[in-house]
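DATA SHEET
Item: assembly model
Revision: 1
Owner: S.N.
Input lines:
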Amino acid sequence: QQQVKQSPQSLIVQKGGISIINCAYENTAFDYFPWYQQFPGKGPALLIAIRPDVSEKKEGRFTISFNKSAKQFSLHIMDSQPGDSATYFCAASIGRGPGKLIFGQGTTLQVKP
Amino acid sequence: DAGVTQSPTHLIKTRGQQVTLRCSPKSGHDTVSWYQQALGQGPQFIFQYYEEEERQRGNFPDRFSGHQFPNYSSELNVNALLLGDSALYLCASSKASDGYEKLFFGSGTQLSVL
């Protein structure tokens, strides 16, 4: 019940395309869902986050879509750029923190020029 | 303003040895969390320190222990190292009142156990 399952494991997108990464969870007590971006040799950095009282949140080219009934949420990267090439992790927690974040397994995104 | 700093950046140990990893939180932060990130996996929560006490712990054996100092810096100790302890160890800091919106990770310590 503590798992967050992420797919796909890897993704290749052309520059200008849309990248979509999906996550599913089981624990209905989760109420905070962030996405982190990690570049090689660096720690994860918060990209965007959502709470289950809204179905969508947009920040620039990044959008989270949230489906509470399906217990799924996804990250959409519009107009993907080569600089977006990184590993993306979804996560979930109970409360805004501090506490423990449960991370998905990660998706390695490659944006081809 | 320096962010979260971790030392050392890389470390090689042999099975059975003990290791200490160090973390200095971002200025103004009072809470430190430690995560283990195995190759190709997401980070896994080890434990969290606030006010020099372990406040929450993940599913890790007692071989993993920690400490937080009065200046909020923290150490992660791992005893009796196993090959499976090879991973990137990440420290994350935050201010207790800010929540995850202002959670910052360091670049990690890459531990290799031979």
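QC remark: The first strand of chain A starts at residue 4 and ends at 7.
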